[in-house]
Amino acid sequence: MRKTTDPCFVVLLELIICHPLMKNFQTQLEETWAALFSSIRYAKNFSGSVCFRHTVLSPLGYETPLFKGLNEDINCRGATAHDLWQNPDDRKTARLSEFGEMIRTAFGFQVNRHQTEKPGSGHNVLFVRREDYLAHPRHGGKVQSRLSNEQEVFDSIQRWVSDHSECKINLINGLFAHMTMKEQVKHIQDASVIIGAHGAGLTHIVSATPKTVIFEIISSQFRRPHFELIARWKGLEYHAINLDGSYANPTVVINKLSNIMRSLGC
């Protein structure tokens, strides 16, 4: 794993970070770019026309394989590079796992491909919080809420964890908007279970370790396969609850989480 100075990556970063909608996340993004790449230049700082030998433009939004998965069956599963080296399979990929390892390495975390067990200090259950915000002008100025009773669900899980005597569970309050990117990545790699409403914070599961379980809460307005596909392409166990609206019954969530923890021997 190493930083790259390939110009094609620099062009991609410039196009994303200069987007006006990314201003609220600019500090964390700049931290990420600095960790991943050895040299960054902003398109706005170019004094004139620039010709690049190689340029890679990544389609944003709905023109990606993740979104195309709504209507197409992409026959692909995740595996480690070591497993594929021993047992080649053109229907499996290690690319997302390798990308997650690159991110963790860039932030100074060790990547032990042979160790898949979590630390012995109990199971970390990371609840990725999603704060309401105006996601995009196309939504007509409406604040987007993916889980209307998120605090109620979190508080209910917290009480359940406090009363859980079978094993030690640490509930992590994943308020990522208030953390550095390095802190976010550490919480992801230390988690046994990652819970969250459908939203951008769950993209972090690319950095999850092989035995992590993903539990997505999906409102009726946002039934999209993005995070299910990321989990599948990383070879992670994935569970979901599909809501009738944006309200999640805390008892249903806890029952699902309890079953997941039981499968982990807890």
From TrEMBL:
Query: Which InterPro entries does the record match to this protein?
Result: Glyco_transf_61_cat, Glycosyltransferase_61
Q: According to the lineage, what is the superkingdom?
A: Eukaryota
Gene Ontology cellular component? Golgi membrane
- Pfam family name, one: Glyco_transf_61
- Bilayer disposition of the protein: Single-pass type II membrane protein
What region holds the Glycosyltransferase 61 catalytic domain? 119-214
| Signal peptide start and end residues | none
Q: Which GO terms describe its molecular function?
A: pentosyltransferase activity
Where, subcellularly, is it found? Golgi apparatus membrane
Keywords attached to this Swiss-Prot or TrEMBL record, sorted alphabetically, are: Glycoprotein, Glycosyltransferase, Transferase
Name recorded for this polypeptide = Glycosyltransferase 61 catalytic domain-containing protein
